[in-house]
What we know:
The protein has six helices and 54 strands. The strands form 13 sheets. Strands 9, 30, 31, 32, 53 and 54 form a six-stranded antiparallel beta sheet that branches. Strands 4-3-2-1-8 form a five-stranded antiparallel beta sheet. The radius of gyration is 27 Å and the shape is globular. The model is unreliable at 25-30 and 113-158 (pLDDT under 50).
Amino acid sequence: MLKQPYTINGSILVRPSTNEIILGSENLHSKKTEKLEPRIMLVLNMLAANEGKVVTRQSLIDKIWENEFVGEDALTQAISRLRKVLGDHPRSPEIIETIPKKGYRFIGRIGRENQSGNALRESKKQWRDNYTRNLLLLPVALFFCLAIITANTFKVAKTPALSTGLVQFTSDQGRENYPAISPNNDFIVFSKQAPDERKMNLYVKSRHSDFIRRLTHSASDDLNATWSPDGKFIAYLRLIDGNSTIYILPFNHDDPENPGQKLLQTDFTNSSNLSWSPDGSHILFSDKVDPQNNLQLFTLDISTGKKTALLNTVEDSYDYINGVYSRDGKHIAYSKRRNLADVICTVTMAKDNPLEREVHHFQGSINDIAWYDAQSLIFKGYKENQASLWNVALSDGKLVWLGGEQISSFAYLQDSNELVYANRYYNIDLHQVVLPVEARTAPEVVFSSTKSEWAPDISPDQQSLIFLSNKTGHYQLWQADLASGQSKQLTFFRNAVAANARWSPDGERIVLEVLEEGNYNLYLLDTDGGKPTLLLNDWFDNENPSWSPDGENIYYQSNFSGQEEIWRINLHSGQTEQMTTGGAIYGEASPDGKYLYFTRAADETGLWRLDLEKRGAAEKIYSLPCQPQANAWRLSDNGLFFKLAHEDRFSIAHYNFSNGKIEILHSIEDFVVDATIMFTISPDRRLLFYSNLVDIESDLVLAEIELKG
């Protein structure tokens, strides 16, 4: 282990002998000292001593805690403490990287004592020499310091890179998706489902005129078109009777009934991306060795039709998807998927042994990848019902949120500052049902528009309803009076997206989840007006809030400890406390305040309970027919309201804790996407409000994009 002082990334000085970490600015004349517990310092030293190498969790526990009997939680807490002190974000780490199911890797830059001393002396000398000039600039410096303090205090969102230079490329009725830009940047090919058709076919449209031409006319879906490097051909996937077939069409193709040249047919349905190699000889795609296997990456030789596996070895539990060639053809980027937690990877193309490297672990699903330049990628990431674009650096895995709310797919052409994306529009209405439901009683639509009104929550006095709507642009929080039907907008975020919201028990406040700068933050809002107040000012995702029965605390989901857990914040003291261990997705306190109920990962269908007085380990108390989705279940005084999936419908149901019986309150047969069904039930159990998707539209949008720095 390291015993002598050393620096991390040039601005953090570590003194192992005194268990001190000194945090400074780049010139180190502004600094702060933090004391670490001895074992936490030993964890840091062991990781730093193995710079660039993966250190397993077990080896850390064995070395640091030696003969003591401790669980992995002790190490998790140590890593969490280190990250907090060092200012290192687990989602985009610059110092300590988590290697799932293995351990941790130190990825920071280490400097030795003499180097740090020289750097410190040099920076002090430079600062002293420039003292007079700096005094003259003091008013300007104070202005910028004030701006920085204000931004950090109130978490003002930066303007997303995607929000500038927007141009509507298509606006006809129907759904456009899967765009691809021609190499000369003049044309865009895309899939479209016309209003009077059930399947998607290919169209091509000019960037500079009204020219548009239909390329295919099929009873099957034609998807994921990609251009040949010379722009003369278009390859695409056709889905026929459970099979995916790769076809190739000339760009000047004028017979929509002719699908073009058939290159390869698979034995299962796969709508993964296609990517043409820069030399025009191969197409990269995902396929299975047989229907029982996971997806792997293959290359298809266009001249011979030969299919070749890209990687010599793959992990059986992952699907390998979204493969795309770099511009020079020497590298391929792709994602590996398991349980909607995707890993961005690159592989260096070598003759006998392609070298794979994991770039970033994304806590959500990835559906598209494009090379922004030789140093970074753009991808579409989906989590918490939001589909946004992100930029990830290949060197360190650092993420930059580019913006977007409901992006279906996108295309980007290197050397251009424009991309095209399919923007999806959900038409979601709010429905009301009087309980118990009488036979043949239809639900009443109470709030609707051509946009989305969803995720309702009824006030404790049963007089008002809050819900989310994007009818003015971004999703904002709205409040409606149930007696008059009049509604008003409560939030006015410019570059942020409102998400889940819950009334306080006294009905005087609302806790609100907001997506800004790619992170989920919690805000508190008084119902009598005023601006929302930020509750937590950190770099972590804080989401899915709920209230304690006395209104003194808010429970929320956070990844502060390195994985999703339930935390609690006291609204008077501001003190936060981790409530669960072992992973937790969403939590609610029981009406009597004695217990915290929560769910775990999507593949663990049950409900857990934590005794808030005795604490200790949580116990799994109920096994349900399906996993309650986060923010799609509510506690009652004797059980749980939740969504229950059937073969042909969804139901709002109640699970009775005492007898284990499930009561169906209302069945929803005309659903399109189950994730849009969110509900709330009045305290007297007489009114049920739920949101349901009516229709989906999507258009293509052109956007300017230029990343700085």
